[in-house]
TrEMBL record, chain A:
Species name: Haloplanus rubicundus
Gene3D superfamilies: NagB/RpiA/CoA transferase-like
Protein name: LUD domain-containing protein
Span of domain LUD: 66-167
Matches recorded under Pfam families: LUD_dom
Source domain of life: Archaea
TrEMBL record, chain B:
Chain intervals with Basic and acidic residues compositional bias: 1-16
PROSITE patterns per UniProt: 4FE4S_FER_1, 4FE4S_FER_2
Annotated 4Fe-4S ferredoxin-type domain residues: 365-392
Residues covered by region (Disordered): 1-28
Organism in which the protein naturally occurs: Haloplanus rubicundus
Keyword Iron-sulfur: yes
GO molecular function (one): 4 iron, 4 sulfur cluster binding
Stated name of the protein: (4Fe-4S)-binding protein
Gene3D superfamilies in the cross-refs: Alpha-helical ferredoxin, NagB/RpiA/CoA transferase-like
Coiled coil feature spans: 34-61
Amino acid sequence: MATTTTNPTLSTFEESLADLGVDCTRTTAADFATTLADIVRDPAVGVPLPFDVEYPDSVTVDPTPAELERAETGITPASYGVANYGSVFLPATDDGAELVSLYPKLHVPVVRADDVLPALPEALDRFGDAAREEDLSAIVATGPSATADMGKLVLGAHGPEAVHVVMLDE
Amino acid sequence: MSKGRGDKAAEIRRLMATEGPAIEENTKGFNRKRREAIEGLENYEELRDRAREIKEDAIDRLPELLDELRTAVEDNGGQMYIADDAADANRYIRDVAAEKEAERVVKSKSMTTEELEVNDALAEDGVDVVETDLGEWVVQLADETPSHLIAPAIHRSQESIAELFKEVFDPADPPETASELTSFAREKLGERIRDADVGMTGANFVTADSGTMAIVTSEGNARKCAVTPDTHVAVTGVEKVIPSTDELSPFLELLARSGTGQDLTAYVSLLTPPVDTPTVDFDDDETPLSERDSDREFHLVLIDNGRMAMREDDQLRETLYCIRCGQCSNSCANFQHVGGHAFGGETYSGGIGTGWEAGIEGLDTAAEFNDFCTGCSRCVNGCPTKIDIPWINTVVRDRVNRGKEPDGYDFLVEGLTPDEEPGGLDLDKRLFGNFETLAKLGSATAPVSNWVAKTGPARWALERVAGVDARRDLPEFQRETLVDWFENRVTAVSDPTREVVLYPDVYTNHVQVERGKAAVRTLEALGVSVRVPDVRSSGRAPLSQGMIATAEEHAHDVYGRLAEHLDAGRDVVVIEPSDLAMFDREYEKFLPEASVERLQEHSYEIMEYVYGLLENGADADTLRGGDGDGVAYHAHCQQRTLGLEAHTVAVLEDLGYDVLTSDVECCGMAGSFGYKDTYYELSMDVGDDLAEQFSTTEARDRTVVASGTSCLEQLDALLSRPSTHPVELIAP
Ligand code: SF4
């Protein structure tokens, strides 16, 4: 696939995501809202992002459980990306990031380009510190939810059937 | 006795017909993907070494790590309980459920909770327990047990699942395709998860430093079970504890690759509970998530149930290094044809299942399926933590043998068999284990022995008393053994470049004497001086019956006899791959390290040796060339494990043969296994794949060549054309 970068880690990340069938869009802080508005399926919900960006109006930020239940799209931050596997580290937070990344059919993780690391050990290293110090929990998500238990590979078993990564240049 | 064997054979036949096809397709698919996934991983061996190292260390320091973990879990606000056994664990879990007044518990697949039979325990209290892993749910609805460590419903086809859903739910519009079935299940299970009071999960790893659990899933149900209800109970074995989060990565990189051939499964949950995720009531349309509380309860239940004793057991300890990837089941030809409902015990199945069942249930349970392991070693190179799975099976077999009470016949048998085994050992095992004695007798009295063995009454008696299937051709003993033949001839090499000892394994010495002669001629043609001393059998036959003490005695004798030749600088050339494998692997358990190293360093498989000679300038023209002749070659399981298949292929190609190799994993015979009436049909069923491959248009006119004795015998039974050892093909 055509890559938008010459940074080898980022291009590896993009290639790995493509292999997983995951779309990836790179954007800047300024363009974030318009980019996201194009990606989401309505209704969309999101948790507050720890980046200097604005959500588009179409996204309900900090939804109620009932809004979450109705949502087609969930947007959450990712702490790191893992380039060689196309994985994202999704922190479980008290504003419900875990739920928002899990229940809707489309999950949109937002990761800073600077936080994409080459391989799993580097990411686990950073996670380990947070787990020891702040009891952090996280999900290493690699592609959409899948099952082969019903005879063939099917996407969207219990979790999202599609993932669209937004890579942010802050 | 024979009734028991007959029942077992019938059960195997039934499973081969009903569950076999789905299991075969799925396991072979996993296998193929595993091989691809591993090829792309440069540091695969390093990761395996590292994983092994971490496990050895963790099990070694387990009590200390458990203390550290308890502190971490309690500091985080959770509770940890170490249960002695299933009853103890179930009592604790029932108490938690009772205290929450739980009406429903949702579960994410966990073999450990299968081990506890926690569903039944909770059901006694009227708690509705629902499995949420799609495969596990299917198994639960059908009231079956899982048939595979990681793919519980692997034995079921899509059609049979559709049928099951129709029966149980009687839906207006019955789901049929895989995606319809999945969304049907997702919906049904989604409702149940939302209503649940307690979520129960397993854990693949638990880190002592932070109290973090790693749960590996692809569906997302573990995440849902862990964070949707406000109470989370994680249940797993004490052996899952590793020192720290930093040590997770080799396991995570190996687990999915070894099991299903994925790089990583979709979700690795790294939960350090109680988690911060707010609890939800999906009807609430007022309170935003950030304002909801996250009042959560977490219990980590670690079960011992025999594991701490396994830790003290020098032979079974390795079992605790298992990360339950399922690779040893996928790569096992017998498992591929019958699955875990035959090749499994109360809970665990497949190659390592015997070790688990022996440790947590007891020898009786392990004994029921221990015989399915033929010791072919195909699983060995794929185990992420380098567990010697066949050895564990052998040890368990030995213990099962030793646990037997002698019966009436034994004073008689004891007199006839020169082994080191206890009185109660099964007659069939004793017969196969003492094959060397039998072969000696057979050669000494040939051709009469062969003639007698073929008669109806003899075959009947053999089948009745010793379980040797009458449909199997018996080996024909030669009157003149290889050793005898060699003694009576004058060596033809003047000015030899090297000296070797050709190891006269039992089969070559007594049955396949011609391949022995061909090996001598080949070596001599390449300028090598050959000796064929009278050396005992390697002990492979008793070892495969679990007769470890007898095998050990052979090992000492063999080394004693070969040592003087090693001293004299002679290499040892072995024709039978399973004997070379014995020198290479099992002798480590019997002989001093220095002796084993010496033997290993100077032992070669015959075609490997020929390859080496040719590489070093020996004249290939002295051998019989192929001139484009077609060959269909099947390497031997243990030879492949040792990485020696390529040498034979290279030599044959060098000599001008057009070689087609079988990509089928196994011929299905693996020695005595295929002779036993209980397993004969399974052995032939496994062999069918090979027969098919060698009967295609591309292969059908080729000369069939195989390296192992049992493979040759099986190919002779499977195909109408004869087969031969590669050295017989090239010998001048
Ligand atoms: S023994 Fe090894 S290969 Fe078999 S399930 Fe355990 S870890 Fe996997």
